Amino acid sequence: MESAKKIINRDKNGNVIKDLSKVTLPQELEISIFKILNPDLQIKEVKFVS
């Protein structure tokens, strides 16, 4: 019997987040994620538009 995994996204207060596209991350975290996903690119200046 296969187990089904259900992912529920919650904020720090425990509220369910239905649309993750509306979530804003701190800029340092966005840059860290970008560096992890793109290790071959050298970042001189990164400008994020939210």
Q: How would you sum up this structure, described in words?
A:
It is a single chain. The protein has 50 residues and is mostly helical. It contains one helix and no strands. The longest helix has 11 residues, at 27-37. It is elongated. It comes from Lysinibacillus irui.
Distance between the termini: 43 Å
Largest pleated sheet: none
**How large, in whole angstroms, is the Cα Rg?**
16 Å
Contiguous low-pLDDT stretches (5 residues minimum) are none
Protein name: F-box domain-containing protein
Organism: Lysinibacillus irui
Helix and strand arrangement:
Layout: H1 27-37
Question: How would you sum up this structure in a few lines?
Answer:
This protein has 50 residues and is mainly α.
